[in-house]
Specification:
Two copies of one chain form a homodimer. The two termini of chain A are 18 Å apart. In chain A, α1 crosses α8, α2 runs antiparallel to α5 and α2 packs across α8. The longest helix of chain A has 21 residues. Chain A contains twelve helices and 21 strands. In chain A, the strands form five sheets. In chain A, strands 9-10-13-11-12 form a five-stranded mixed beta barrel. The first copy, chain A, has a five-stranded mixed beta sheet with strand order 18-17-19-20-21, with helices on both faces. The first copy, chain A, has two domains: 255 residues, Bira Bifunctional Protein, Domain 2 (BirA Bifunctional Protein, domain 2, 2-Layer Sandwich), CATH 3.30.930; 91 residues, Anticodon-binding domain (Rossmann fold, 3-Layer(aba) Sandwich). The first copy, chain A, is elongated, with a radius of gyration of 25 Å. Chain A has 419 residues and is an alpha+beta fold. Chains A and B meet through β1, β2, α2, β3 and β4 of A and β1, β2, α2, β3 and β4 of B.
C-alpha cells in the first residue's frame, strides 16, 4: 500500500486524555480512534493487526474441532432470566435497551446463554456430543471506569469458544488440549515468552480456573510466577495450601503485574440445567451437558503486544501480526530514487510481500524514520541516493540499530523464502 | 467437513412464526437461528455463505480504492446532535442505552457521522482527498415490525462505504464507477440477471438516488422495469416527467415487486458542514468535503438469493457463495461404500475442493437426498453400491434432474480446473 494514499497520518502529540501506552502509540500511529472512553474504532492499520490475530485464533480453533458461528448482539431477556443473570443486581455490566413495544432487551456481554440456547435444539442423544462452537463478536460491558486504552473496553472484540461435553472426563480431556492451544496462540502473536498459565479462582465445578497472564507493568492483576515450570498463581488464590498443592515453593515465586490475555473456565452443568440442554446417554438417562468456556479479547491482545514489545520510539510488531512485513522508505525527491523505490515496491508486491511504501513527498528523512519507528513494521527498507550509489537497498529490522545494504534480488529472496 | 460432526441438523417442520421463504429454508437447513423477531444468529453453514459474500464485496471495495476499518457500535450522542439526528423525533429507529454515569449513548444505525468524525482529524488540504473508507458492521435499527426473515432485521450485518471527494465533479466520477462495482457484486453473488439499477428519490444534492432492486415476490417495493436498457424506476418517483427525462416509454415499463439489495446515495456537503470536515483548496479557500454513501446488507443479500434461486425442495446456492462446492453423499453401510466415500472425500480435500460429506450412519438414502436438496450445495456426488458397480461417482448439479457417472479422476479434474 502507498502511504501517500493511506488516509490516516501519524501524530506527534499524545492525546491528553489517554494515560496508557497502548492507546498513546496506537492513536499516534493512526491504528485506532477513540469514540469515547473505552470505545475505540479500528482504522486501516489497526484492523490489519486485528485480522491477523483473528486468523491465528481461527486456525487454532478449527484445528481443535471448533465450529464458527456469528451470534447476535441483541439479547433476549427471557433466556438470561432462566440462568438468573438478567437482573442488574446479579450482573452489573449490562447495557439494556427497549423495543418499540417496550420489551426490554440487552447487549451481549457474554455468550454462554446464547450458545446453550442455540445448541439445545440440536442435542438429543449422546451421539450429538461433544460440540465445540465459537464466534468472534463485539461485546459490550458497562464498566464504571475505562482508562487502559484498548485493554479494558466498554465495547471490545473477542473470541469465545464453548465446549459441550458428555461428562466431566470428556470435558477435562478437551480442557487440557485447550491449554496447549492457548499457549500456541500467545506464542504465535509474539508474547509467549512473557505469558504464563495462571491458577485463578474456580467455580462450583472446579477448584481453579486458568488464566493466561502476560507480565507487564500495565497489568491490572498481581501474579506470582514460578519461572522453573512456567506457571503462575493469581493473588486471589495465593495461599499456602494452594502453593503446596501445586508443588511450588513460596520463596521461589516472583511477584509481577500481569494482564489476563485469555482465560479458560470449567462451567460444569449449571447452565445446561437452567437452559434445558439435556441429552439421553447410552443407558437411556437424561443428562445435562458439561460446559467449558474459553475466551480471548483481540483488542486487549493487540494492546498487550504494544505494552510489552514497544520501545520509546514506538511500536514493534511481531512479523505474524504486523500490518505489513516491510516499510519501504523512499528518501529524497530525485528521479533516480523515485524510480528505484517504485521498482522495489512493485517487485515486492509481485512477490506477494506485504509492503507499505512511504512515497510521501515533502517529508524529511528524519520524519520518515521517526514515523517508521512509531508504526513498528518489522523491517525497514530504505531507497536513497546513498543506497543507490551502493547498488542496493538499506535493510534493517525495527529492533536493530544499523542496517546493511542488500541487493534487490537478495531482498526478494529473503522475503519470499519467509512465506 | 463431515456432516456427522456438524452440530446443526436439518428440520422437516417450518417454524410457525416465520412467514418468509428465506427464513423457512435457512432455519430448516440450519443456516440461521432466530433469537427474536428481526434478530438472527448465523450458524456454521450460514456464516460460510456470509463470509463468501463479504469477501466478494471486500475485493470490489479494495479494487475501487476503499480502505477498510472497523468502527464502533456504541455511538456518542454529541456527534449525532451536531447533524440533528440524535432526537427520536428526527430518527425513530434508534436503540439507546446509558453509561453508569447516566450519559446517553446510541447503537449504530448508520455510519456517516462516525466516518466523518474519524476522517476530520486527517483532512486538512486538498491533497488529502479523495478518501474512500468502508467497514463491515452489525447495525441495529429499532424497527416496529420485522417479518421478512433476514431481509429486514433489527440487527443486521452490512457493508457501508463513504466517499469523501473534493467537489461534485470528483464525486460524480466515483459514483459512476460505484454503479459498475455494485453491478459486479450482484452478478458475482448470482442475482445479476434479476437486479436492476433503479432510480429512487434523491436528496438536497441530487435529483435521484440509485437503488439496486432484485425482482422477487417477497420484495417490499414496487418498481417499473425497462428490460431494453436494464434500468428501473421506484414507484416513489414514477411520474411522467421522470419517465421522459430518462428517455423511457411508460407503456414499455413492467411493474414488479423488488427488494433493495444495495443503494448508492449522493449526500453532498451537509454532513461535512455540520461536523466540520473542511479542507483548504489550492487557492486557500476552506471548502467542505463532498460525501457519498454506498450500502449493502449482507444478510439481506443472502436472504434474497434464497428467495429468488430456491425451488420447492430447498435452496440453490450459486457456486460463488455456496457453503461448500460439493455435497458428497455416502449411501448405505457396506464397507466398500464407506471406504470409497472416504477415499473420494480425502482426494477432494487434498485438491482444496470445499466438500461436505454426508457420512451420517442410520439415515436412509431418501433422507440424505432430501437434506441435500434443502441445503442446496451446487453439486451432489453420490457414492453407493450402484456407483461402485459402475466404477465411478454419480455427479449431478443441484439444478439437474439426473446425474451421470464420472470417474474419480474426472471428478477431480472438473473441480480443480474450476478453481
Amino acid at each position: 500500500m502507498q502511504q501517500s494514499k493511506l488516509f490516516t497520518k501519524t501524530k506527534k502529540e499524545t492525546p491528553s486524555d489517554e494515560v496508557s501506552k497502548n492507546a498513546e502509540f496506537l492513536i499516534r500511529g493512526g491504528f485506532i480512534y477513540k469514540e469515547m472512553a473505552g470505545v475505540y474504532s479500528y482504522l486501516p492499520l489497526g484492523l490489519r493487526v486485528i485480522k491477523k490475530i483473528e486468523n491465528i485464533i481461527r486456525e487454532e480453533m478449527d484445528a481443535i474441532g471448533g465450529q464458527e458461528m456469528k451470534t447476535s448482539i441483541l439479547q433476549n431477556k427471557e433466556v438470561w432470566e432462566k440462568t438468573n443473570r438478567w437482573d442488574d443486581k446479579e450482573v452489573d455490566i449490562w447495557f439494556k435497551t427497549k423495543l418499540k413495544n417496550d420489551t426490554e432487551i440487552g447487549l451481549s456481554w457474554s455468550n454462554e446463554e446464547n450458545f446453550t440456547s442455540i445448541l439445545k435444539q440440536y442435542v438429543n442423544s449422546y451421539k450429538d456430543l461433544p460440540i465445540y462452537a465459537y464466534d468472534f463478536k463485539d461485546i459490550m460491558r458497562n464498566e464504571v471506569r475505562s482508562k487502559s486504552g484498548i485493554m479494558r473496553g466498554r465495547e471490545f472484540y473477542w473470541k469465545a469458544l464453548y465446549s459441550f461435553s458428555k461428562d466431566e472426563k470428556e470435558h477435562n480431556d478437551f480442557y487440557e488440549k485447550m491449554k496447549i492451544t492457548y499457549s500456541n496462540i500467545f506464542k504465535k502473536v509474539g508474547i509467549g515468552h512473557l505469558t504464563y498459565l495462571t491458577f485463578a479462582s474456580g467455580g462450583a465445578f472446579s477448584k481453579y480456573s486458568h488464566e493466561f497472564q502476560t507480565i507487564t507493568s500495565a497489568g491490572e492483576d498481581t501474579i506470582y510466577v514460578s519461572e522453573d515450570n512456567a506457571i503462575a498463581i493469581n493473588k486471589e488464590v495465593f495461599e499456602d495450601e494452594v502453593i503446596a498443592s501445586l508443588g511450588l515453593e513460596k520463596n521461589k515465586l516472583v511477584e509481577h503485574r500481569g494482564i489476563e490475555v485469555g482465560n479458560i473456565f470449567t462451567l460444569g452443568t449449571n447452565k445446561a440445567e437452567s437452559l434445558d440442554l439435556y441429552y439421553t446417554d447410552d443407558k437411556g438417562n437424561k443428562v445435562p451437558a458439561f460446559i467449558g468456556s474459553y475466551g480471548i479479547g483481540l483488542g486487549r491482545l493487540m494492546g498487550t503486544v504494544v505494552e510489552v514489545l514497544s520501545d520509546d520510539k514506538g511500536m514493534i510488531w511481531p512479523e505474524t501480526i504486523a500490518p505489513f512485513k516491510i516499510h519501504l522508505l523512499s528518501l529524497g525527491e530525485g528521479e533516480a530514487v523515485l524510480l528505484e523505490a517504485k521498482n522495489v515496491y512493485e517487485k515486492l508486491l509481485a512477490s506477494d510481500v506485504e509492503v507499505l511504501i512511504d512515497d510521501r513527498s515533502g517529508i524529511s528523512a528524519g520524519e520518515k524514520f521517526a514515523d517508521s519507528d512509531l508504526l513498528g513494521i518489522p523491517y525497514r527498507a530504505v531507497v536513497s541516493e546513498r543506497s543507490i550509489k551502493e547498488n542496493g537497498i538499506e535493510l534493517k529490522k525495527r529492533t536493530e540499530e544499523k542496517g546493511k545494504i542488500v541487493s534487490l534480488s537478495e531482498l526478494l529472496n529473503l522475503f519470499t523464502s519467509k512465506i
